[in-house]
Amino acid sequence: MQALGKRRWVIAEGYLPPSSTGETRQFVSHETACMLNTGDVPAQVSVTVFFADREPAGPYRLTVPPRRTVHMRFNDLKEPEPIPLDTDYASVIESDVPIVVQHTRLDSRQAALALMTTMAWSAE
Predict the structure, then answer these.
(1) 6 with 119: CB under 8 angstroms?
(2) Contacts of 23 (CB under 8 A, 6+ apart)
(3) Which of 2, 91, 94, 122 could join 6 via S-S bond, C-beta 3.0 to 4.6 A?
């Protein structure tokens, strides 16, 4: 299959809720960058996170295997530093091959869960 997507994506909205109602991983409040690589070679991806009141964090590095998807939770990013909870942020995702990126948030601070998803903006 042809490699679909772009090499640079922007998610201008980001926020990790400070609490959750759920105990299990499925119900912990989180944000995810869903990345799809339809091509035949691995995508080497770097993520840089921007904040309102400090210098950016990153780059965070990961690989999206060929013809696979990776759902990267911002909560799981640890190196070079964790993303702080209860803090607004934005991210730029860059890949050496075309990929498709979608952004999702699960907010489980209340018993009535809220799920939001949107396509990232292609910066190419």
Answers:
(1) no
(2) none
(3) 122
